[in-house]
Amino acid sequence: MLPPDVEVEIVNDSWNDPDYSRDYDLLFLSALHPDFDRARQLSHYWRRRGAKTVFGGTMASSYPQLCRPYFDAVVVGDAEGSVPQIYQDFCANTLKPVIRLSRL
After folding, report:
1. Burial category of 79 from C-beta neighbours within 10 Å (exposed 0-12, middle 13-18, buried 19 and up)
2. What backbone phi and psi angles, to 5 degrees, belong to 87?
3. C-alpha–C-alpha distance, residues 60 and 79, integer Å
4. What is the pLDDT of residue 16?
5. Per residue, what are the HEC states of 23-92?
6. Hey, which end of the chain has fewer CB within 10 Å, N or C?
7. Which H helix or E strand runs over 100?
8. String of b and e for 32-62 (b: at least 16 CB within 10 Å)?
9. CB 86: neighbour CB atoms within 10 A?
10. Strand 73-76, strand 52-56: pairing
């Protein structure tokens, strides 16, 4: 979904703590409703360090306006289908606050 030269790290925060010494340019977060506060905290931490954060998952799709203040972008719908466009927008510095995916 991303160009081959992009470094990708996948962290499941339920199993391992994130490496807080790492710097990220773009951070994709996903969470169920009960994990929203944790996703919000992670977003806040890395936004303060300069990263852009994108939030997806059932919480984002159900309540995008509630999520919006805590993330640079919120994905409504299947986030996987939006990753290439989000990355392109990020690189062009035109990341949209809410990305709504239409179903085919």
Report:
1. buried
2. -65, -45
3. 10
4. 86
5. CCCEEEEECCHHHHHHHHHHHHHHHHCCCEEEEECHHHHHCHHHHHHHCCEEEECCHHHHHHHHHHHHHC
6. C
7. strand 98-100
8. eeebbeebbebbeebeeeebbbbbbbebbbe
9. 22
10. parallel
**CB-based contacts of 44, cutoff 8 Å, min separation 6:** 70
| CB-based contact 73:98 (threshold 8 Å) | yes
- CB atoms closer than 10 angstroms to residue 12: 7
Residue type present at position 28: F
Distance between CA atoms of 41 and 79, rounded to whole angstroms?
Answer: 20
The Cα 60–Cα 73 span in angstroms is 10
Measured CA to CA, the distance from residue 61 to residue 33 in angstroms comes to: 11
Q: Which residue has the tokens 């799709």?
A: 61
